[in-house]
Amino acid sequence: MSKIAVLGYGTVGSGVVKVLETNASIITEKAGETIEVKRVLDLRDFPGDPVQSIVTHEFTDIEQDEEISVVVETMGGTKPAYDFVKRSILAGKSVCTSNKALVADHGTELIRLAKEKGVHFFFEASVGGGIPILRPLSRCLVADELLSIDGILNGTTNFILTKMADEGSAYEDVLKEAQALGYAEADPTADVEGYDTCRKIAILTALAYGAQVDYEDITTVGISKITATDIAYAKKMGRVIRLLGSSRRENGKLYALVAPFILGEEDPLYSVNGVFNAIKVTGNMLGEVMFYGQGAGKEATASAVVTDIVEAVKNRDIPVEIRWDERKQVVESMDTMKNRFFVRLETAEKDKAVEVFGGKTVIDGVADGEFGLVTEEMTEKEFDAKIAGFATCRSTIRYK
Predict the structure, then answer these.
(1) Residues 331-389 pLDDT 10s
(2) Spatial distance between the Cα atoms of 60 and 51, rounded to a whole number of angstroms
(3) Which of 9, 179, 241, 333 could form a disulfide with 42 if both were Cys (CB 3.0 to 4.6 A apart)?
(4) CA distance 41 to 379
(5) Chain centre to alpha carbon of residue 300
(6) d(CA 12, CA 238)
(7) Is the torsion defined by CA of 385, 390, 396, 399 positive or negative?
(8) Which are the contacts of 287, defined by CB distance < 8 A and separation ≥ 6?
(9) Does the annotation mark 200 as catalytic?
């Protein structure tokens, strides 16, 4: 029997306990032994909940308990999560976490410490909720040179953009609906401004290429400036707008970006709607492969955490290599990254825009007094220089 502790009895923590109880027989069979939750750490009490009898308010009760071999961190944030996770590893306990902020900020150090102590630090649920993506990246795609990763990594923003397209609604109205439904926080900044997606693409890129990526080096643009008119232009082109976390390697250089993109139906990410997430990985031999599913939610995320628990139990005395060293990957300047762009300008500047941008796609009839244009591919620096010459730019969105 393996005994574990759960740090935080919120949505994901309670989900972990539920999954372990509901699927106990299946989990025992796959782990090769029973897994018992011995302790739950939380500041609160839970009268009437069976877990109340094992609740503790003191982390030392877990840290000093030699029977506990795996600690599950579902607290979120980095304080006090980082301290508790580091102390757990130093105490010789494996750690499984769903905490993207913790992994993005401290993953490099915690992976190294776990290796030094002969334990595991697993974090499958930190990206994509219940979607299995991190393990395939680090173990199943090793025969390929990974060329690019593009992901819809945040259910809140995807819900908002899908709803705006379906109903023609304004961003502000759909955001309020998302908050009422519980899809968006009271303060939605981390989601709608792309910060959540940024941390996740940093984690994916670190695993894909085997070295640290500082998420603060990744240019990040959110969806708060996307308007119903932008959505209408995309629909007229038979396309959709989605917030993507994207990274790619070209000529040995790493580029990474979080931003809204206009996607066509030929892109597998085109049909990912609502709160669902998807990650598209392109390899030089495999081509495109996509991972799709629920990117958040109690049971989905908890399922991924429990998979990590089983992995830690089965490999108690076996090192599981995670290729993510402390060498920092340089994220190239956005100036040299190449993209196509969609721009909205006033009608008076149409002839000039066609001449300057070489755009072959001009879209009229969506809004009075303006038009849309899709540029040819160019560097971000070239685009910035060219768009600066126009006085009437109403919107710019990257275009795939």
Answers:
(1) 999 999 999 999 999 999 999 999 999 867 999 999 999 999 999 999 999 999 999 99
(2) 19
(3) 9
(4) 50
(5) 15
(6) 38
(7) negative
(8) none
(9) yes
Confidence band for 38, pLDDT divided at 50, 70 and 90 = very high
* Token pair recorded at residue 69: 């071999």
Both structure tokens of 103: 């992994």
Identify the helix (H) or strand (E) that includes residue 262. strand 253-263
Task: Name the one residue in this structure whose structure tokens are 């769903």.
Answer: 98
pLDDT in tens, 141-188: 888 999 999 999 999 999 999 999 999 999 999 999 999 988 899 999
Q: Long-range CB contacts (< 8 A, 24+ apart) of 322-325?
A: 322/111, 322/121, 322/138, 322/207, 323/138, 323/207, 323/210, 324/107, 324/108, 324/111, 324/206, 324/207, 324/210, 324/211, 324/212, 325/108, 325/210, 325/211, 325/212
Using CA of residue 253, residue 383, residue 232, residue 260, what is the dihedral sign? positive
Place of tokens 């629920």: 294
Range in 58-72, 79-93, 346-360 with the lowest mean pLDDT: 346-360
- Contacts of residue 65, defined as CB under 8 A and 6 or more positions apart, other chains included, come to 5, 38, 39
- Hey, is 227 helix, strand or coil? coil
CB 91 within 8 A of CB 61: no
* DSSP string of 342-384, one letter each residue: EEEEEGGGHHHHHHHH--SEEE-SSSTTEEEEEPPPEEHHHHH
* Three-state SS at 91: coil
**Whether the Cβ atoms of residue 153 and residue 130 lie closer than 8 Å to each other:** no
Contact (Cβ atoms closer than 8 angstroms) between residue 169 and residue 228: yes
Burial of 360 (0-12, 13-18, 19+ CB in 10 A): exposed
Candidate list 38, 100, 163, 200, residue with the active-site label: 200
Please choose, from the candidates 341, 339, 353, the residue with its C-alpha nearest in 3D space to the C-alpha of residue 391.
353
Cα–Cα separations (whole angstroms), residue 198 to 22, 58, 319, 333: 34, 33, 30, 16
Query: What is the distance, to the nearest Å, from the Cα of residue 164 to the centroid of all Cα atoms in its chain?
Result: 22
Helix segments in 52-119, DSSP class H = 60-63, 81-90, 100-117
